[in-house]
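Problem 3 from the worked examples.
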Amino acid sequence: MRNKTTDYRLPTTDYKRGFTLIEIIIYMALLAIFLLTLTDIFVSILDVQLESDATSAVEQDGRFILARMSYDIPRATDISTPPQIGQTRSNLIMTIAGVTTYEYAENGGNLQLINDLGTNNLNSSESTISNLSFQRIANSAVSGTKDTIKIQFTITSKTTRTGGPETKIFQTTIGRR
């Protein structure tokens, strides 16, 4: 005959099928730590990218503007504004090839080149220009030397980053040939 108490017992392997509450809590805690670490790394990568974008925009725009002015000013046949030694103006007006008038001026945060071909912004949409000044430091009509202009401007990135916008002051001196 069979023993009735043994018929109703469950095998011991049936008790091992799931996770205990403690195991689930431990797994969730480990997963949370892992996800927080990955999120922190991801945010750090994004911050570095923003820093790089801001710095790159400022540097590229500054180099391009200085290169453009270094190309145009030596080709000028006459620089009319600023007119006298020591004077500072917010725009530069010159004549190239005796007929074409070029004007560099700041308008609405953009450095514009205005000539017979139209108006062109020299900085990118990722930056703004401020504190633009042109100072005549030599005049060929007075001193017998070539016209020389001291240029200064500030470029600020529009990229929003944790440390604030990237800002750099550019300054150079360029003379007519």
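Problem 4, a separate protein:
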Amino acid sequence: MIPHSPVYLVGPLLLLGGAATAAQQPAGARQVFDGTMLPGVQVVTFEHSDALFPVNRVLRGKAVQPLPPAAMQLKNVRFPSRGAEYDLFDYLADNRVAGLLILKDGKVVLEDYELGAGPDSHWISFSMAKSISSTLVGAALKQGLIASLDDPLTRYLPQLKGGAYEGVSIRNILQMASGVKWDETYTDPRSDRRKLLDIQLEEKPGGILDYMNGRSRVGPPGSIWNYSTGESFVVGALLEAATHKPLATYLSETLWSPLGMEQDATWWVESPGGMGLAGSGLGATLRDYGRLGLLVQRDGFIDGEQIVPVGWFEQAGKAQTIGGKPVDYGYLWWPIPAGDPVHRGAFEARGIFGQHMYINPREKVVIVVLSARPKPDAALSPLDDAPFFAAVVKALQ
């Protein structure tokens, strides 16, 4: 610390000398979705997602699950992307990676932090939270709190009767196949996603479910695939209704504490003390995201007990058939498209701005990438992710 320089606490940020530079101030939520943040502002914002919306805390337990180093440390890999060849250092620099963790057989073969991030940084998940929520649905199913994926949502959320989600099953909504009309475009203020963001900013209890249930239908349930963050928020309402617990509490009791996380996490809520937002806004450390990945890679076992139904992740992580057509989407997880055979059976959690949790059960590899890419649209990322993941897996065989 600079001698004789006072320290002021502004939200979650420590500011030296009583004055904050522009790079120290987090952006607002609309600025995030517009993708109009200076690089330093973006990093601060992603490290302090609890400044964007109200949060509930996800409490860790007393014991910490170790992540021991592997005997062999990964130094570099080379991979093709968009007609050229790149290496590990290109991937880190060009994709603005803040944290990279690679696990093989449960051991760390590479752990790297950039952009000022570190082991204590609580980085925003964005839509990786959807896949974690899917895992919680599997846990609730195993516990008997949800009877069947083919149950109608209205069995647990009777307030949805007579609206857009009448007749929609839990399976439909996990597959993003409700038939409810939705526009996910992040940068368009007229899109459904941005209208939902405006409702989030109002922090009005019940506002999100009211908006979702007032949407129109474009097809019967199970007939059309349409990616919708709003739909994943409905999953959060389902979980809270089925478990009779706040989403963060259920995550803590079911996964966070039993998995031996190093630190508490935070998770966005609709309003102070309100509904948990299952589709986004988890804030956690790189290593704790890695522990979640290991749970999935190990088929949902914690201390010898399987906390999801047998075969859950095999089903949740594979492409589905919607309306008679194959779709590269599972139960809120993204299968790695057919291509390099090393990806057989692999899938990932994915979030905008370059967040990834890659799971390869066959090769016992987990890769977590936390990034601050310039725009939310994945198509604008400089380097492709799947070829990089493939090169890592092959290097560890």
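Solution to problem 4. The chain has two domains: 1-34, 58-116+127-395. The chain is about 30% helix and 20% strand.
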